[in-house]
Amino acid sequence: MTDVIKKVKKTVLGNPLDLKDSSTFRHISLIVFFAWVGLGSDALSSSCYGPEEIYKTLGVHVNLSIIVGLITMVTIFIISTSYSQIIKLFPHGGGGYLVATRLISPNVGMISGSALLIDYVLTISISVSSGADAIFSFLPYEYQSYKVAFALSILGILTILNLRGVKESVTALTPIFVIFLISHIFLIIYAFTTHGSQLQSVAVKTGTELTGTVHQLGIYGTIFLIMKAYSMGAGTYTGIEAVSNGIPNLREPRVKTAIKTMRLLAISLSAAVLGLIISYFLFNVHMQPGKTMNAVLISTAIANWNPIFGQTFLYVTLISEAALLFVAAQTGFLDGPRVMSNMAHDSWLPRSFSMLSDRLVSQNGILIMGIAAYFVIWMSKASVAFLVVLYSINVFITFSLSQFGMVKHWFQVRKQDKKWLSKLLINGTGFLLTTFILLTVIVMKFDEGGWITILITGALVGLALYIKGHYNKIGEEIGRIQKIMNEKMPETIAELNNNLKRKAPTTKIDYTDMTAVILVNGYTGVGLYSLFKILSKFKDVYKNFVFIQVGIVDADSFHQDAVVDTITEKIQQDLGKYVYLINQLGYNAEYRYAIGTDVAEEVLKIVPEITEKYHNTTFIGGQLVFSGTYRASRLLHNYTIFSIQRRLYKLGLTTIIIPISLRKALQVNHYK
To answer: What's the first-to-final CA gap in the chain, in angstroms?
Structure first.
């Protein structure tokens, strides 16, 4: 990376964060309020389009939206209560992927994770698109042609903010989130206080509308209409899962922080949805081309206000709506990469997705989420009406699997937990409700485009199965090599001693002698095979050996306690074994190590110290040779040694890469 690129990266993304600084995680973690902003905004923002979709679906039977709103409010509290139990059982993060994996099976967990990833992409897409709708609601209709470009620009900004780090991305948008709360609370209270006398007539009209609809459509037709409207507003619940999945991003004590966040989310969301639906009735608002329902509501409410104050309130409220929707996209950017990282850690996705950047964020995951959302927004033309059809199906797959896993867990521990029955009833109710909603949403949305979501999710599941199979195959081969190396260790050392000129240990160290700086990744069969290959190919060429290993802190391990100390201890044990082996052969050996998020960067930091001490160095590393095309294997394996070679080449240092064929390694009986 050139100096210019480094400067641009530092300017855009910020300075690297120090893993060894104990205050680093506290600096980027979220307190209750910021957690509410970053994780609860997805659900709360749905009040900007959820009630509108309910209204549009009901057509001339809009009074039934009160009934749908009440059912929605009850649903919110049932789901949030059942997820609070998941938070307590999984204090380090209990998203749908982890819950289903641990409580049901890894394969079921993979399906849940795949569904979540697609849902988070749609969360980003619909939030940004709906935010653009809010902005363009007070612009002339002819400006609608610029809406897609505007939405894509906002998406780009959000992607950069998230690459800078979690807390910065949330903090930057918090002031407008507060303005949204104040303006919408004021709007709802204003509607109730100025038109409160009409509440009774609204209730009566709702009952009359229900009776009339039953006479017109029949009882089953009425239920179908209500459930269709309910399914179109199902996106309201999608942000609830985000709190349990985002626990690792929260400030200690995380469980209390998460539960308080969940409580705030449930209260604010139910009040916003039902409050806005009733306000529509009180002001008798109807859909208008190029405007959202909330825009029409505000315009009607301020009709008799002072023009300057009224227009200011309109602009401030709609802009805050847009900002909240943009904040809601944070749910996808915060939790999508985390799910991706967890799946990558379990080998369902390329392992590079578990790596952290120097800003301690899942850079690859954030970029993938941003790119995927770009294509969704571009192909849908930022149409909320179309995206809402694709939306919310997948999250109910995760909801249902998570609740089923919890029910299974409480039943299994019934002898150890005295309160198992009450807990089972809570999650059991959640399971029945979310499964019912899932089936309803699939039936209602399938022909209108919901099949697209199911098809894409199925394709991702198939890809995950392929990747897992590939990693399992490689893992089995490496395990067999490890077994062979352990069995042949004494024989191999003796054989090398017989073929090398030096057989007795020496205490004299000549720092001008040829020195092999060997890059290793743990004390593994592949590492041992690579070492013995070097010794047999370069007989008695190298008199000194330096082993380098870099411990990687990935997204899965970063939030665990004392992660740096744990990794350091393991590295020291592994490197000590290599040094012992070389000493057995009569050569000088020592090791160096580092802890970080980028292997190549950390190696370069160690290099000056080694080259200053040893004057004739050759850097040596092994690289597994995988079957199949290079492009395909490049996506699944990091090929870090080539990146290190390029950087050392610029420093004028020699690097030798030893290709390691697993097939040949399994067939080798000696190292001559």
So the answer is: 40
